[in-house]
Protein backbone atom coordinates (compact mmCIF):
# COMPACT_ATOMS: atom_id res chain seq x y z
CA UNK A 1 0.00 0.00 0.00
CA UNK A 2 0.93 3.65 -0.27
CA UNK A 3 -0.03 6.85 1.50
CA UNK A 4 0.08 10.41 0.22
CA UNK A 5 3.10 12.32 1.49
CA UNK A 6 0.85 15.18 2.60
CA UNK A 7 -1.27 12.78 4.67
CA UNK A 8 1.82 11.23 6.27
CA UNK A 9 3.24 14.64 7.19
CA UNK A 10 -0.06 15.92 8.56
CA UNK A 11 -0.48 12.87 10.79
CA UNK A 12 3.08 12.98 12.07
CA UNK A 13 2.83 16.70 12.83
CA UNK A 14 -0.46 16.09 14.66
CA UNK A 15 0.77 13.07 16.60
CA UNK A 16 3.90 14.87 17.82
CA UNK A 17 2.11 18.21 18.34
CA UNK A 18 5.03 19.68 16.41
CA UNK A 19 3.53 23.11 15.66
CA UNK A 20 3.22 24.00 19.36
CA UNK A 21 6.83 23.19 20.33
CA UNK A 22 9.40 25.95 19.85
CA UNK A 23 12.68 24.57 18.56
CA UNK A 24 16.10 25.33 17.06
CA UNK A 25 15.12 23.97 13.63
CA UNK A 26 12.04 23.49 11.45
CA UNK A 27 10.16 20.34 12.45
CA UNK A 28 8.29 18.27 9.91
CA UNK A 29 8.87 18.15 6.17
CA UNK A 30 12.31 19.63 5.42
CA UNK A 31 12.81 18.31 1.88
CA UNK A 32 9.92 17.33 -0.40
CA UNK A 33 10.17 14.23 -2.55
CA UNK A 34 7.73 12.00 -4.42
CA UNK A 35 4.02 12.42 -3.60
CA UNK A 36 3.35 8.79 -2.60
CA UNK A 37 5.03 6.88 0.24
CA UNK A 38 5.41 3.12 0.50
CA UNK A 39 8.66 2.81 2.47
CA UNK A 40 10.16 4.87 5.29
CA UNK A 41 13.80 4.60 6.35
CA UNK A 42 14.47 6.04 9.80
CA UNK A 43 17.72 6.96 11.53
CA UNK A 44 19.06 9.28 14.20
CA UNK A 45 20.77 11.83 11.94
CA UNK A 46 20.35 12.70 8.26
CA UNK A 47 24.00 12.01 7.53
CA UNK A 48 25.34 11.13 4.09
CA UNK A 49 25.74 7.52 5.25
CA UNK A 50 22.04 7.29 6.14
CA UNK A 51 20.98 8.94 2.89
CA UNK A 52 23.09 6.54 0.84
CA UNK A 53 21.59 3.60 2.73
CA UNK A 54 18.10 4.99 2.14
CA UNK A 55 18.74 5.25 -1.59
CA UNK A 56 19.90 1.63 -1.62
CA UNK A 57 16.81 0.60 0.34
CA UNK A 58 14.58 2.45 -2.15
CA UNK A 59 13.06 4.66 0.53
CA UNK A 60 10.43 7.25 -0.26
CA UNK A 61 10.95 9.09 3.04
CA UNK A 62 13.89 9.48 5.40
CA UNK A 63 12.67 10.08 8.96
CA UNK A 64 15.20 11.44 11.49
CA UNK A 65 15.65 13.14 14.84
CA UNK A 66 18.52 15.37 13.66
CA UNK A 67 17.71 17.02 10.35
CA UNK A 68 18.89 20.24 8.72
CA UNK A 69 18.51 24.04 8.78
CA UNK A 70 19.53 24.71 12.38
CA UNK A 71 19.42 28.25 13.74
CA UNK A 72 22.61 30.26 13.16
CA UNK A 73 24.10 27.71 10.73
CA UNK A 74 25.63 28.84 7.44
CA UNK A 75 22.66 29.13 5.04
CA UNK A 76 24.74 28.48 1.90
CA UNK A 77 24.12 25.21 0.07
CA UNK A 78 27.76 24.15 -0.24
CA UNK A 79 29.95 21.26 0.85
CA UNK A 80 28.25 18.44 2.74
CA UNK A 81 24.93 20.32 2.73
CA UNK A 82 24.99 20.46 -1.07
CA UNK A 83 25.85 16.76 -1.32
CA UNK A 84 23.17 15.70 1.14
CA UNK A 85 20.45 17.79 -0.49
CA UNK A 86 21.53 16.61 -3.93
CA UNK A 87 21.19 13.00 -2.81
CA UNK A 88 17.66 13.58 -1.58
CA UNK A 89 16.49 15.69 -4.52
CA UNK A 90 18.06 13.61 -7.27
CA UNK A 91 16.42 10.48 -5.84
CA UNK A 92 13.07 12.17 -5.13
CA UNK A 93 13.26 11.27 -1.42
CA UNK A 94 11.55 13.35 1.25
CA UNK A 95 13.21 14.27 4.55
CA UNK A 96 11.08 14.39 7.70
CA UNK A 97 12.82 15.61 10.86
CA UNK A 98 11.55 16.05 14.42
CA UNK A 99 13.84 17.34 17.15
CA UNK A 100 12.29 18.45 20.46
CA UNK A 101 8.83 17.05 19.58
CA UNK A 102 10.48 13.62 19.42
CA UNK A 103 12.29 14.15 22.72
CA UNK A 104 9.19 14.99 24.76
CA UNK A 105 6.45 12.79 23.29
CA UNK A 106 4.83 10.61 26.00
CA UNK A 107 4.60 7.48 23.82
CA UNK A 108 7.36 7.45 21.18
CA UNK A 109 9.64 10.14 22.63
CA UNK A 110 13.34 9.54 23.10
CA UNK A 111 13.14 9.87 26.88
CA UNK A 112 10.18 7.56 27.43
CA UNK A 113 11.64 5.01 25.01
CA UNK A 114 15.03 5.10 26.78
CA UNK A 115 13.22 4.43 30.06
CA UNK A 116 11.74 1.28 28.53
CA UNK A 117 15.09 0.13 27.22
CA UNK A 118 16.81 0.64 30.60
CA UNK A 119 13.96 -0.57 32.78
CA UNK A 120 13.29 2.77 34.48
CA UNK A 121 9.93 3.51 36.11
CA UNK A 122 8.77 7.00 35.15
CA UNK A 123 7.51 9.20 37.99
CA UNK A 124 7.26 12.55 36.23
CA UNK A 125 9.02 15.47 34.60
CA UNK A 126 12.50 16.60 35.59
CA UNK A 127 11.13 20.14 35.79
CA UNK A 128 7.54 19.64 37.00
CA UNK A 129 6.73 23.36 36.90
CA UNK A 130 7.99 23.75 33.33
CA UNK A 131 5.37 22.69 30.72
CA UNK A 132 8.18 22.30 28.17
CA UNK A 133 10.32 20.05 30.38
CA UNK A 134 12.27 17.52 28.33
CA UNK A 135 13.88 15.26 30.94
CA UNK A 136 12.22 12.72 33.23
CA UNK A 137 12.57 11.46 36.80
CA UNK A 138 11.97 7.90 37.89
CA UNK A 139 13.10 4.95 39.93
CA UNK A 140 15.07 1.74 39.72
CA UNK A 141 13.34 -1.35 41.08
CA UNK A 142 15.21 -2.99 42.64
CA UNK A 143 17.86 -0.35 43.36
CA UNK A 144 21.27 -0.97 41.78
CA UNK A 145 24.82 0.01 42.60
CA UNK A 146 26.36 2.50 40.16
CA UNK A 147 28.59 -0.23 38.70
CA UNK A 148 25.64 -2.60 38.20
CA UNK A 149 23.62 0.13 36.54
CA UNK A 150 26.57 0.98 34.31
CA UNK A 151 26.62 -2.67 33.23
CA UNK A 152 22.91 -2.45 32.38
CA UNK A 153 23.53 0.68 30.30
CA UNK A 154 26.49 -0.97 28.57
CA UNK A 155 24.58 -4.14 27.66
CA UNK A 156 21.36 -2.32 26.68
CA UNK A 157 22.90 0.42 24.54
CA UNK A 158 25.98 -1.43 23.29
CA UNK A 159 28.23 1.41 24.38
CA UNK A 160 30.69 1.98 27.22
CA UNK A 161 29.31 4.87 29.30
CA UNK A 162 31.37 7.38 31.20
CA UNK A 163 30.55 7.08 34.90
CA UNK A 164 31.07 9.33 37.91
CA UNK A 165 30.24 7.18 40.94
CA UNK A 166 28.09 8.63 43.70
CA UNK A 167 25.94 6.89 46.34
CA UNK A 168 26.20 3.16 47.03
CA UNK A 169 22.72 2.54 45.58
CA UNK A 170 20.68 4.22 42.85
CA UNK A 171 17.03 4.31 43.87
CA UNK A 172 15.84 7.43 42.05
CA UNK A 173 17.28 8.64 38.76
CA UNK A 174 16.81 11.51 36.33
CA UNK A 175 17.60 11.34 32.62
CA UNK A 176 17.47 13.39 29.45
CA UNK A 177 18.75 12.04 26.14
CA UNK A 178 21.29 13.68 23.85
CA UNK A 179 23.33 16.74 24.75
CA UNK A 180 21.57 17.50 28.03
CA UNK A 181 24.44 17.50 30.49
CA UNK A 182 23.42 21.05 31.44
CA UNK A 183 20.32 19.68 33.16
CA UNK A 184 22.44 18.13 35.91
CA UNK A 185 21.61 21.13 38.12
CA UNK A 186 17.90 20.25 37.81
CA UNK A 187 18.75 16.64 38.67
CA UNK A 188 20.52 17.81 41.83
CA UNK A 189 17.47 19.92 42.74
CA UNK A 190 15.21 16.89 42.19
CA UNK A 191 17.12 15.00 44.89
CA UNK A 192 17.88 11.94 42.78
CA UNK A 193 20.79 9.54 43.24
CA UNK A 194 21.92 9.60 39.59
CA UNK A 195 21.61 11.50 36.34
CA UNK A 196 21.99 9.99 32.87
CA UNK A 197 22.33 11.79 29.56
CA UNK A 198 24.25 11.49 26.31
CA UNK A 199 27.18 13.89 26.63
CA UNK A 200 29.47 15.30 29.29
CA UNK A 201 31.14 18.70 29.74
CA UNK A 202 34.06 19.55 32.00
CA UNK A 203 31.92 21.23 34.70
CA UNK A 204 29.51 18.28 34.78
CA UNK A 205 32.08 16.08 36.52
CA UNK A 206 32.64 18.57 39.33
CA UNK A 207 28.92 19.19 39.82
CA UNK A 208 28.29 15.45 40.14
CA UNK A 209 31.19 14.85 42.53
CA UNK A 210 30.50 17.84 44.75
CA UNK A 211 26.82 16.97 45.08
CA UNK A 212 27.33 13.25 45.70
CA UNK A 213 25.50 12.32 42.50
CA UNK A 214 26.24 9.43 40.16
CA UNK A 215 26.48 10.60 36.56
CA UNK A 216 26.39 8.60 33.32
CA UNK A 217 27.18 9.88 29.82
CA UNK A 218 25.95 7.11 27.54
CA UNK A 219 26.35 8.82 24.14
CA UNK A 220 24.24 11.36 22.28
CA UNK A 221 23.56 8.98 19.39
CA UNK A 222 23.15 5.89 21.58
CA UNK A 223 20.52 7.47 23.84
CA UNK A 224 18.50 8.84 20.91
CA UNK A 225 18.12 5.74 18.74
CA UNK A 226 14.77 4.65 20.11
CA UNK A 227 12.31 7.48 19.58
CA UNK A 228 12.66 7.59 15.82
CA UNK A 229 12.32 3.80 15.64
CA UNK A 230 9.10 3.92 17.65
CA UNK A 231 7.74 6.76 15.51
CA UNK A 232 8.58 4.87 12.33
CA UNK A 233 6.75 1.80 13.63
CA UNK A 234 3.75 3.91 14.57
CA UNK A 235 3.52 5.35 11.05
CA UNK A 236 4.05 1.94 9.44
CA UNK A 237 1.12 0.48 11.39
CA UNK A 238 -1.04 3.57 10.96
CA UNK A 239 -0.75 3.55 7.16
CA UNK A 240 0.16 -0.09 6.42
CA UNK A 241 3.48 0.91 4.84
CA UNK A 242 7.04 -0.37 5.28
CA UNK A 243 9.52 0.92 7.84
CA UNK A 244 13.23 0.15 8.16
CA UNK A 245 15.49 1.60 10.88
CA UNK A 246 19.13 1.97 9.83
CA UNK A 247 21.66 2.62 12.58
CA UNK A 248 24.75 4.41 11.30
CA UNK A 249 27.35 3.88 14.08
CA UNK A 250 28.46 7.00 15.91
CA UNK A 251 30.68 6.88 19.01
CA UNK A 252 29.65 10.36 20.18
UniProtKB/TrEMBL annotation:
Pfam families: DUF34_NIF3. Gene3D superfamilies: NIF3 (NGG1p interacting factor 3)-like. Transmembrane segments: none annotated. Keywords: Metal-binding. Coiled coil: none annotated. GO terms for cellular component: cytoplasm. Belongs to the GTP cyclohydrolase I type 2/NIF3 family. This is GTP cyclohydrolase 1 type 2 homolog.
